[in-house]
Design brief:
The structure is a single chain. The chain has a single domain (about 40-65, about 80-230), classed as Rossmann fold, CATH 3.40.50.300. Helix 3 crosses helix 4 (about 125-140). The chain is globular and about 50 Å long. The protein is an alpha/beta fold. A hairpin with a 2-residue loop joins strand 4 (about 70-75) and strand 5. It has helices at about 55-60, 85-95, 110-120, 125-140, 155-165, 185-200, 210-215; strands spanning about 10-20, 25-35, 40-45, 70-75, 75, 95, 170-175, 205-210, 220-225, 230. It has 7 helices and 10 strands. The strands form 2 sheets. The protein has a 6-stranded mixed β-sheet with strand order 6-7-8-3-9-10. Strands 2-1-4-5 form a 4-stranded antiparallel β-sheet, covered by helices on one side. Bound molecules: adenosine-5'-triphosphate.
Amino acid sequence: MQSNIKALPAIYLNGIYKRYGNNENNVEVLSNINLEIANGEFLALCGPSGSGKSTLLNILSGIDKPSLGYVVLLNKLLNDLAEKDLASLRSKHLGFIFQFFNLMPVLNAFDNVFYPLVLNGHFDTKAATERSLHCLDSVGLADLRDRKPGQLSGGQQQRVAIARALAHEPQIVVADEPTGNLDLATGDAILDLLLNINQQTGTTFVISTHSTQLKARAGRVVEIRDGGLAYDSAK
Ligand SMILES: Nc1ncnc2c1ncn2[C@@H]1O[C@H](COP(=O)(O)OP(=O)(O)OP(=O)(O)O)[C@@H](O)[C@H]1O
C-alpha cells in the first residue's frame, strides 16, 4: 500500500519577512517568502547583489531571526528555540561553506578540519582524526594536509573548507557563494565535488550563487528579486 504521508521537508519557510533598521528608518529585504526544501535537494539560490540571498541563508540556518514568519529546520520550529539549542542544532546537523573559505591561517589543513570537529563535542580524538583524514582524502587533499592555508591555492583552500563542513556528516550544507572567489575552472571543479557529495551521500545543499555554471547544474534554482521569490524551477 502506498503511503499518503508526504515526506517532511528538510527546511520549511512560511511567510518570512526580514526588516533591518528601527521603526523610523528600516528597509524590508525579504517579503513573504514561502519555500520548502526537500531532503537531498541541491538548490541554487540566485538573485541580484543585495537581493537578500545571504539574509535568507542566515534565517533558514537559524543564525538570524526573521522579523515575521516561521522557520522549520529538520522538524524543529526555530522560532521556539533558545540560542544554545540553535547552536547545538547547527553544530550537529549543518555544515557551512563561505566565499572566502574562513580557514584559520595558523592551523594546517588537517587541524582546520580536526579542531572544529573535536570542539563540536560529538567526536573523541580518535574518531575526529579518522574523520578528518577521510574527509581530506575525499576532497583530494590528503597529501597536502600539513600545509597552512597560505601555502594552498584558492581551490585547495575551498576543498579544506568543504572537508571541514562535511566532517561531522551534516544533513544540510549551507554555502554562501562557494565559487565566488575562484576562477572558472577551479569553480567548476569545486562544483563537481559538491554535486558528487550530494549524489553520493544525499546531503541537502542550499547554495547562494551568481554562477551560471552552478545554476545550470543545480537540481533546483530559486531566484529572489525585490524581496520575493521571483522564480522556482520546481514550480
Ligand atoms: N545587518 C544588516 N543591517 C542592515 N542592512 C543589512 C544587514 N545585512 C544585510 N543588509 C542589507 O540587506 C540587503 C540584502 O543583503 P544580502 O547580503 O542578504 O544580499 P545578497 O543577495 O546576499 O547580496 P550579494 O549577492 O551581494 O552577496 C542589502 O541591501 C544589505 O545592505
